[in-house]
Amino acid sequence: AGHPQSFLGKENFGNVPGKASVQAVPDLEEYFGTDTFLTEAHTLEALKAMEAPVKNKQPFFLNMAHYAIHLPFDKDPRYFQKYIDAGLSETEAKYAGLVEGMDKSLGDIMDWLQQKKVDKNTIIIFMSDNGGFSMAPRTGEPFSHNYPLKSGKGSVYEGGIREPMLVKWSGIVTPGSVANQYVIIEDFFPTILEMARITKFKTVQPVDGKSFMPVLRNKNFIDTARILVWHYPNKWIPQGGPGINYKSAIRQGSWKLIYDMQTGKNELYNLHNDIGEATDLSAIHPAKAKLLSSKLSAQLRNWKSPMPVFKSTGKLVPMPDELW
Q1: How far is CA 105 from the centre of its chain?
Q2: Best label site of 22, 61, 213, 249, fewest CB within 10 Å?
Q3: What distance in Å separates the CA atoms of residue 115 and residue 54, rounded to the nearest whole number?
């Protein structure tokens, strides 16, 4: 369970006079005690937020982050009974209803943009913030809900860090096309700046991301040299789980290395051949594992990334390359 995000913005930011519209967090008090479900309330407020900038022909940016499909699972009365009648358990009926409500929300927003005749001048990015929830209270075997991906939310396995992203951009993104280039959340900042044609800007700290505009313009664009890093030097949940708690990971091309800070063990996978991360290749390809371990360590040092401390010794957990 994550927070599916919808980012919407007028394409020609730089060519429209006037400042971009900024909308405060909506006040949902008016919906309290009514029959309006939370997902629908958010949708109605999102439409209100876009009214003024569209009317005034101003550029706008909307970040639509639903509570659905996050815990706690709630019954959306518009859809819940339909899934109960279809034979789903109460938990899964709640979950499915939340998904359908979220889907309707995005559809309603897209219909509104079309009615206002600004749909062809609006960029829509739809994605989630992490992999699907895979523990209780979902039914079925724990950590199995994102199959064929391994594990789920909170994990550095693909079930926790891989999620789809959809982009609608008339004239730029080919409808129905699929791109295979991997990107990461840090890439959204420079990408949205490039979409907005903003070139003169200052940041307090270095920009870690890389614009994925080349991918949007050409679905066949592939950068296999690109390095992505995940670093979780903390305990997220008490009981742990596959790839959860005190883990780091690095990906370059099809190769991915996972570092367990508690055991010092490295795992190596080729995602092209093994998307489910079932076969650890670190003993078969030790040179590749050592190379990725070195690159992971270099990036962690560059970021001055925190490392946990062993209670028994008071010493910091070593960087991955210190164990070779």
Answers
A1: 19
A2: 22
A3: 11
Q: How far is CA 119 from CA 40, 107, 123, 252, 287, in A?
A: 21, 12, 8, 36, 50
pLDDT of residue 40: 96
Alpha-carbon distance 86 to 95, whole Å?
13
CA dihedral 184, 236, 248, 278 (to 10 degrees): -90
Angstrom distance (rounded) from CA 210 to CA 213: 9
Rounded CA separation 226/242 (Å):
25
Q: Are strands 247-252 and 227-232 parallel, antiparallel or unpaired?
A: antiparallel
Q: Both tokens of residue 18?
A: 């006037």
Residue type for position 241 = G
Residue with tokens 């995005």: 106
Q: Which of 245, 236, 302, 291 is nearest to 268 (CA)?
A: 291
Distance between start and end Cα atoms, the chain: 37
Q: Residue 166: phi, psi to the nearest 5?
A: -115, 135
pLDDT band at 6 (very low <50, low <70, confident <90, very high): low
Give the whole-angstrom CA distance, residue 210 versus residue 99: 31
Amino acid symbol at 72: P
Query: CB-based contacts of 31: which residues, under 8 Å, 6+ apart?
Result: 38, 41
One-letter amino acid for residue 34 of the chain: T
Backbone angle region of 152, left / alpha / beta, with phi > 0 → left and psi within -120 to 50 → alpha: beta
Nearest to 300 by CA among 280, 275, 322, 278: 322
pTM over 0.85: yes
Average pLDDT over residues 180-185: 96
**Per-residue pLDDT at 100 exceeds 70:** yes
User: What is the CB neighbour count within 10 angstroms for residue 71?
Assistant: 11
**Alpha-carbon span 323 to 264, nearest angstrom:** 7
Neighbours of 148 (CB within 10 A): 11
Distance CA 2, CA 211 (A): 24
Instruction: Judge whether 159 and 149 are in contact, CB under 8 Å.
Output: yes
Which residues 6+ apart lie within 8 Å of 312 measured at CB? none
